[in-house]
Amino acid sequence: MSFKFERLEVWQRAIEFANAMFDIADALPQRYQFSLGEQLRKAALSIPTNIAEGSGRDSPKGASYFYSISKGSVYECVSLMVMIGKRGHLEREAYQHHSTEADEIAAMISGLIRVQ
Prior knowledge:
mainly alpha
């Protein structure tokens, strides 16, 4: 691991979370691929990429900006999972598992923002 962000537990967990969100999106029926699927993929990908970008910023304000975007993307994923569940394509247990992970990741991102 050569970049600082790669050593961050929150980035590592965000990568795994994004991968799980891609699995959910990939399993959606074709009619939801563009609307829900692409939106979930973009939001999920935004979490680790904005953590990485924030960690490379030279100022605390710059870092906090990207960390805040990352945290917002976590919440976006949760909202999308709710809608996917309402459409019958995400089991309650899976939602609860991923929602708990999202909550923990958001808390870790808040920690990154506080130490800036």
